[in-house]
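Can you make up a polypeptide sequence alongside its tokenized fold?
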Amino acid sequence: MINQEAVKFCFRNKYKIYPVIEKFVYYVMVEYGSKRKKYHVTYTKTTIHKGIEDMYHLIYEKQKDK
């Protein structure tokens, strides 16, 4: 289940997290201000949602105390 606090934190701090497709493989893209980074882990159509959920959590855990 997605961590609502993590999602709220990312929305309030203007993070944009979304899937991108390259050659039938899914990646998680993160935008913050003018920076954009494609996460290196690959996903399938059925697992990309978990990847996005994990990215919200990862950003929240790294940035929440700053």
